[in-house]
Amino acid sequence: FYCDVKTFPGVASQPKLPHSSKRRLIQENCRPQLPQLRSIQFTVILCSLCCAHLSFLIALSFSPQTIHVAIVCAGYNASRDVVTLVKSVLFHRRNPLHFHFITDSIAQQILSSLFHTWMVPAVRVDFYDADELKSEVSWIPNKHYSGIYGLMKLVLTKTLPSDLQRVIVLDTDITFATDIAELWAVFHKFKGQQVLGLVENQSDWYLGNLWKNHRPWPALGRGFNTGVILLLLDRLRKLRWEQMWRLTAERELMSMLSTSLADQDIFNAVIKQNPFLVHQLPCFWNVQLSDHTRSEKCYKDVSDLKVIHWNSPKKLRVKNKHVEFFRNLYLTFLEYDGNLLRRELFGCPSEADHNSENTLSELDEDDPCYEFRRERFTVHRTHLYFLHYEYKPSSDNTDVTLVAQLSMDRLQMLEAICKHWEGPISLALYLSDAEAQQFLRYAQGSEVLMSRGNVGYHIVYKEGQFYPVNLLRNVAMRHVNTPYMFLSDIDFLPMYSLYEYLRKSVVQLDMANTKKALVVPAFETLRYRLSYPKSKAELLSQLDMGTLFTFRYHVWTKGHAPTNFAKWRTATTPYRVQWEADFEPYVMVRRDSPEYDRRFVGFGWNKVAHIMELDAQEYEFVVLPNAFMIHMPHAPSFDITKFRSNKQYRVCLKTLKEEFQQNMSRRYGFAALKYMTAENNS
């Protein structure tokens, strides 16, 4: 808003002027620059300053109208695609948003976690169970690739809250190039009985001339595209929309037999019978990039573009004279850092995470270890199940999931691990938005990875200066769907038969009824090309020849010394070992075992603290005599380099260790004294 203060100087000189009069003076001399905002409130704050003249400050506060957006989204791929749409909307918006997602259970799990960890101010999200709506539309045969979910926009008047009066409905393959408030403002242009805002279809589909014997559903002229819809819900309900579209669909299906374009066919058939219902939107509100499109007539310049619709099954590979420009715009949002969209809206109060804010405010920013402590409370945006996932539980309740975490520089290990471990895998990947797309292309180009449906890839987006190793492990652990989990690291290749061996050990060692951590002995090689041992005998031979070593033998012997490798060489039955200071084996445990402590980030003590926790909870460490895993060589990580070169890093790690031990003492009492004693003696 632009206000010319000089036009009403009387406000400052009349401190006793009634508030209503001050308000009127300001309103008369201010002109709004954002016409789409309906509710505007002005507040005048009179301030006495320590100077010769009395000045005043005008604070313009306003409550922008909330824009409601409805999206039908089902499955893993659609849940991934819709994020780009949401980014494009958030990037341009200046209003609070309320997203209404009609989802299956998969999309709800993914999107609820994503928005919960995204924490975008002035954004509310509600979910509606698409499975409960299937019976409403399942009677309609549909040939469109969207399946039954492509019909669910028909039942939004029944699905969305009864007090919701209007909503913008979007397909998941939409990209916004402007503020969505401009589209919301179009509702004010509806006249008479207009209840649907739609853009004309930009292909010849409904003209019926695309091929011989092409027989489309009835439509008004070229018909309308339903990728972008403005719905006046209150009026639609009064018009008995449910009855209207059902009767139309039943009548047309008698001759058409099925829909070809899902809900769009039925919307058009209703409009054909009732043309007064539709308000035709300018075509730049839905520039359709399908084959045989006339979309080029919708714009003369880039500034004309409002909404781009990738409504061809070919998506980014569609043929269009300006497709390169459209593709670059789409890729901009695809790889855009979503953390940057957490910005506050001026004048729009949002529900903040007060618990997180209060915790951070208690930290001392002058503390040399402040950044370490702060990381523990950082909420990282998380996208679960980034790729398609399928898992069928085993009937014998012995199944085991391999758990690991990685960043972009360890991506090459994925194929090898999948070849060594045929069971389910849960991975947390620490990536930027751009890296997540690189990973997607890498995975989709890998026959090995695409042949595996039982691998859950969970993207934790980068934020802050530390690698949150234990947060990543916890994310991967929380999404284990088996009774047991093998806690590994991405640099290790398990022996080929380890998956089946661990499942047999579950029964042999009565894991279901006892608290055990089964230790898998760890070895390492310095050779990038290794003839992987197919048995314990082969491994012992390579150990004797110096091809293999016990893990960290050269630099951190006590990390795995309690495993007792000398005993393991000849052992034929599982044997128990005692916890010792700095013990950090790789173990298989029940799914309900404790999580890792988030205070440990980067390099140092992240596994040690977890093993200490297991011991405090009276887990029994049992070494498996015929199991092994081998660490493959790689360049030093950035975090280990910081640990070695930065004295303050080591000081802070020592401080965190001491605080962790104190916490252990408070939680476990006298039993935890041995950890402090062992640490002092080590």
UniProtKB/TrEMBL annotation:
In the N-terminal section; belongs to the glycosyltransferase 8 family. InterPro entries: Glyco_trans_8 (IPR002495), Nucleotide-diphossugar_trans (IPR029044), Xyl/GlcA_transferase (IPR051292). One of its GO terms (biological process) is protein O-linked glycosylation via mannose. The lineage of its organism: Eukaryota, Metazoa, Chordata, Craniata, Vertebrata. Keywords: Glycoprotein, Glycosyltransferase, Golgi apparatus, Membrane, Multifunctional enzyme, Signal-anchor, Transferase, Transmembrane, Transmembrane helix. GO terms for molecular function: glucuronosyltransferase activity; xylosyltransferase activity. Pfam families: Glyco_transf_49, Glyco_transf_8. This is LARGE xylosyl- and glucuronyltransferase 1. It is a single-pass type II membrane protein. It comes from Astatotilapia calliptera (Eastern happy).
